[in-house]
Amino acid sequence: MNVGIDQIGFYTPSYYLDLRDLAHARNEDPNKYLIGIGQERQAVPPASQDAVTMAANAAVQVVTPENRERISLIIFGTESGVDNSKSGAIYLQQLLGLKREARAFEIKQACYGATAGLQMAKDFVAAHPEQEALVVGADVARYGLGTPGEVTQGCGAIAMTISANPRTLAISPNSSVYSDDIMDFWRPLDHTVALVDGHYSNDIYQQFFQKTIHAYCEQQQTNLTDFQALTFHLPYSKLGLKALRTILPEVNEAHQQQWLTEFESSRVYNRQVGNLYTGSLYLSLLSLLDHAQGLTSGNQIGLFSYGSGAQGEFFAGTLQSEFQNSNRRKQIDEMLARRQRLDVNQYEEFFTQWPTFNTANVTIDPEPDDAEFVFTGVVDNKRQYRQR
Ligand code: COA
């Protein structure tokens, strides 16, 4: 029996910053951002969106009358959760009206949380094939105004239903993992922006990729050429390309070309949205599914997940018969096209107004935000959410 991703939903807020504008404001050559970093736009959250609302706006796309009653595991992967105790999964369960006979909790390990959730959900469904799991990765990536990491910000959420006989991607029963105590990216409890040693992080990411992909091939007695495409956690899209380039010499020229072509397919959405932290690998997967040049059902793709701190994991997925979905692609294209461009002053205002975490009572006007689920403020230290 195959187990894996049945459906994927994606949400990003309706505002963005064009990185050409940011380059001009920061006295940088735009090509550093467009080519050197590999990003064009970054999503900017309004005060009415946070990890919970973005997760709900993504999950509402994959919870249907058919699977609703089967969802008995809800895992919320995030690095930017809204409460130090209560999990985003409980808020999500309430907002979506999911059944109470469910296990619901949050996972944190930098950008790796959604993969931990996916692997746990896969084992759960393998043991209980009549049930399904909902796994979300939702984050706001914040490094700070004028910092080197600023160009690699972004926000959004991915939601996946995990089931037996999935329609999108069957996940390999095994994977290879590697972890070590690395101070490449972290966020102390009182910080609303991440601290990062960016160049060190890039090196560790590539080392973990090489370790885990080679360990996977050895353990599973499989060849690199068995993968028709490789997808990566993309905090910024150039980093995946750098990792991919490290293993190109290990395959022939035709295969190199194929991987490079599919890599371009896998970063279309990420280039427009920026960093989603936990959701980034799965946004890249979605981008590959929607833009693949030469993939067909039955093809195998490799997925590399990385969470600073650090945890790496490499696993494989087999494309299923409905891996391409023209409705899903149309909805994403429309969502990205509808977004409003902010100038740098507006972006800086949005940035300083977000987040609203340490206020006992505040009212947020959600009117300008067209999302279905919005954050409306805090009453007696309790966060308020609304579905429209
Ligand atoms: N045209 C084209 N490319 C240019 C360019 C230009 N005019 N100017 C610079 N570049 C290239 C550089 O050569 C470099 O490419 P390379 O990495 O392939 O060598 C790239 O642009 C970035 O330049 P660099 O000087 O290294 O940028 P930086 O020191 O400002 O920092 C990061 C870049 C990525 C390290 C920084 O944005 C960061 O720390 N981001 C956070 C990363 C992160 O989140 N890590 C943890 C999660 S995995």
Automatic annotation (TrEMBL):
One of its GO terms (biological process) is acetyl-CoA metabolic process. GO terms for molecular function: hydroxymethylglutaryl-CoA synthase activity. (3S)-3-hydroxy-3-methylglutaryl-CoA binds at residues 29, 143, 242, 275. Transmembrane segments: none annotated. Pfam families: HMG_CoA_synt_C, HMG_CoA_synt_N. Its EC number is 2.3.3.10. The keyword Transferase applies. InterPro entries: HMG_CoA_synt_C_dom, HMG_CoA_synth_N, HMG_CoA_synthase_prok, Thiolase-like. Residues 2-165 form the Hydroxymethylglutaryl-coenzyme A synthase N-terminal domain. Gene3D superfamilies: 3.40.47.10. Residues 252-353 form the Hydroxymethylglutaryl-coenzyme A synthase C-terminal domain. The active site is at 79 (proton donor/acceptor), 111 (acyl-thioester intermediate), 233 (proton donor/acceptor). Keywords: Acyltransferase, Transferase. SUPFAM superfamilies: Thiolase-like. Belongs to the thiolase-like superfamily. HMG-CoA synthase family. NCBIfam families: HMG-CoA-S_prok. This is Hydroxymethylglutaryl-CoA synthase. The lineage of its organism: Bacteria, Bacillati, Bacillota, Bacilli, Lactobacillales.
